[in-house]
Amino acid sequence: MPTRLTRTAFILVLAALPSGAYAAKGKTMAEILEASTAADWRTPDPDNLLVLDLPGGRAVIELAPYFAPEHVANIRTLAREGYWNGLSINRSQDNFVVQWGDPAEDPAQAKPLGSAKAKLPAEFARAGYDKTAFHPVQDRDGWSKRAGFVQGFPAATDRKRTWLAHCYGTLGAGRGNEPDSSNGTELYVVTGQSPRQLDLNITTVGRVLQGMEHLSVLPRGTGPLGFYEKPEQRTPIVRLALASALPDAERPRLEVLRTDTATFDALVEARRNRSDDWYLHKAGHIDLCNIPISVRSPK
């Protein structure tokens, strides 16, 4: 018959156990995703998907018209009219970005924009804070009053404005010194540690959903800021098109985990306090840009 333990004896038994042995083991990210339902996933609008085909493979990028409607509209026009086809990736800066567009330095030799606009307003942030659209995370953000997600995109807010955060995989519109000098023709993707100092300084227009490996492995440029010094160093763009303009058989089939559900909140907690057997210490914190947003092929 088991011996009844006094409270003091019970505490001594706990103290003798290995650290964490009596803590409840939380679910892992894999377990949470396995238990997810169809309602936890969304299918991106094909009119918001850019398909970037390179010699090494394909990257699929979701546009964010909620944050930059005029830039996204111009990018759609450029893509529909094949503006980037035959152009190139001209920059790959270590731990920072890859950038593509027209490599011509002489404006007289630049590729025509077709029916796209040459001038757009700066769209660094969206005015206001819509708490019905903003799904916050509890962790402190060093770059804003609150961090979270809006329509599947990592975002931040000071409650006067809301913006798309510069995380790994973020797509931005390159500009010169003038705030309104971007028109979507020069695009870059963050391939290094999240450069959040760029927040509120440049128009961000989307995020890579799939195929980052084809961008992050590109050879680093040897010129200033990672630009390629010779034409043969550049990676040609085979095609950059909207998914909605592609034949049905060529469209990407993707589902993206929603960021406004209890399942996503559980996933964030699983990454905040890792329950994988390898982890001996629970961090109790996670950075906005380290929260993964899962992408899968439809079942």
Q: Could you please describe the fold and organization of this structure?
A:
Helices cover 14% and strands 24% of the residues. The chain has 299 residues and is α+β, with helices and mostly antiparallel strands. It has a domain at 46-105 and 115-254: Cyclophilin-like (Cyclophilin, Beta Barrel), CATH 2.40.100. The strands form three sheets. Strands 14-4-5-12-11-13-3-2-15 form a nine-stranded antiparallel sheet. Strand 4 (88-92) and strand 5 form a beta hairpin. The longest helix has 12 residues, at 69-80. The model is unreliable at 1-24 (pLDDT under 50).
Summarize the structure in short.
Pfam families: Pro_isomerase. The protein is α+β, with helices and mostly antiparallel strands and 299 residues long.
Layout of secondary structure:
Layout: H1 7-16, H2 29-34, E1 41-42, E2 49-54, E3 57-63, H3 69-80, E4 88-92, E5 97-101, E6 126-127, E7 134-136, E8 146-150, E9 153-157, E10 161-164, E11 170-173, E12 187-190, E13 203-210, H4 213-216, E14 235-236, E15 239-242, E16 255-257, H5 262-272, E17 295-296
Antiparallel strand pairs: 1-16, 2-3, 2-15, 3-13, 4-5, 4-14, 5-12, 6-10, 7-8, 8-9, 9-10, 11-12, 11-13, 16-17
